[in-house]
Write a structure and sequence with these properties.
The structure is a homodimer of 265-residue chains.
Chain A: H1 2-5, H2 12-21, H3 28-39, H4 44-65, E1 75-76, E2 79-80, H5 82-86, H6 88-110, H7 116-130, H8 135-144, H9 152-177, H10 182-209, H11 213-218, H12 222-226, H13 228-248, H14 254-261
Helix pairs in contact in A: 2-6, 3-4, 3-9, 4-6, 4-9, 6-7, 7-9, 8-9, 9-10, 10-13
């Protein structure tokens, strides 16, 4: 990603992009995409632009989510959030630029390598999971649903869209690049959905433990809805289901197993 | 576009999207794309998704540009701007959703019709013109350059990126869909660039005439930099150049001639 950004002249916008993307993060989504693609022996040259694209989309959502009109977060990954460091206007453009760049990188890759039809399928897939019926739909629920009257069903709808969508897209993209059979694609989709749900429940548990009580009351949170004990049980259940989905379909990948197991606490 | 939006469940976000996109606008960019594609006898089924995509990208930029941290505009097309009607958080998500949906629509079209490689080329092209080196780069200059010390060169750099980029992309996309020769593509790019510049200079003249003096001092404006007389001369010059670019290359399209001539005042 550093190499991608170095194509551009230095400007406050490009500084804000570097600050937002290159100062940490677990890179969970690109690792998932690359690990799935590796399992199908896809060349890194083909999978890497899509892994970068997904990470840029994830990072745009964080920059916009931190804005005062959304979560109003002053810090991200131990650094001042983008709008704190560069101003609200630049942070808005930073998110817009990251989302636009994601598609430029993904489409650009397809100009030179591999099957254009498969890659346009991927862009369609990823924009769908990132959009109104996916991640953005989840963000909408996050700001419009009152945390107090949230049922467990609605909570699941919310975290499925907000977090599991893009994580599922990461796994599916790797599988589609690898020309996976429909059985493998189905099993990996189930794996992705379950680790996506586990990922958000784990995040909610960590938030609670870090005593961010103020935030929890403002935004929907699994622990608030289900209680701490049930949240831990659900976390465990989704990790187990994700691993079972791999095993039952004979998908043996140490990387994918690790990316699920690491969510246990 | 109404048909596209009707796919989604009704929500505050989808209401805000309809409010932002379906309440007017000149549809200049999609008309350019369709007229160019028509000239090359491209079927509407192929060109329409890209025309919609471009209009969605244009509309996302307006919604975000109206936000308080940017231009802080209360009205757009005679209606309350998106954030005035739906709140800042929903307006932010509306812009994000429109940009994401643009790529979903464009990629989705390519799944079923025509040549996937050409269409991925278009997505690459459009995301480039909409991004850091195009429209978003222009927005950045708009908010970071002081209108008072703006030279004519920097003004041109600004309006070329902010406005002419997406207008050029509209014309080029129609030509690429039509498998235009490299001479035609070059001539149409020149046509698009010139009407793009004319479009913004005309807008700046109209703004000045409507006595929006307060805004002019806050944001760069052609009239402020060149004076009213020169702005009118430049407007005329760019329209003439755009028409000449068609004529010199034997491109006879009443629609494209009209879309240039209508900018005269």
């Amino acid at each position: 990603m550093d190499r991608i950004f170095s194509r551009f002249d230095s400007s406050p916008l490009v500084k804000a992009i570097r600050h937002s993307v290159l100062t940490g993060g677990k890179r969970y989504r690109p690792l998932l995409l690359l690990s799935t693609a590796d399992y199908f022996k896809v060349e890194r040259e083909e999978s890497l632009p899509f892994a970068c694209g997904l990470e840029l989309i994830h990072n745009y959502s964080l920059v916009h989510d931190d804005l005062p009109s959304m979560d109003n977060d002053d810090f991200r990954r131990g650094q001042p959030s983008c709008h704190k460091a560069f101003g609200e206007d630049i942070a808005l453009l930073t998110g817009d630029a990251l989302l636009t760049l994601a598609f430029e990188i993904m489409a650009g890759s397809a100009l030179h390598h591999g099957n254009a039809a498969v890659k346009i399928d991927l862009i369609h897939e990823i924009s769908g999971f990132a959009g109104i019926q996916g991640m953005i739909g989840g963000q909408l629920l996050d700001i419009t649903v009152s945390p107090k009257d949230l049922s467990e069903d609605r909570l699941y709808d919310l975290i499925e869209k907000k977090t599991a969508s893009l994580i599922t897209a990461a796994v599916r993209s790797g599988a589609i690049l690898g020309n996976a059979s429909s059985e493998d694609l189905k099993a990996l989709t189930e794996y992705g959905r379950n680790i996506g749900l586990a990922f958000q429940i784990r995040d909610d548990i960590l938030d609670t433990e870090q005593d961010q009580a103020a935030n929890i009351l403002l935004r929907p949170n699994s622990v608030l809805v289900m209680g701490l004990e049930k949240a831990h049980a659900k976390l465990k259940e989704h990790i187990t289901k994700s691993l079972r989905s791999l095993k039952n379909n004979g998908i043996k990948s140490e990387e994918l197993e690790y990316l699920a197991s690491m969510l246990a606490m």
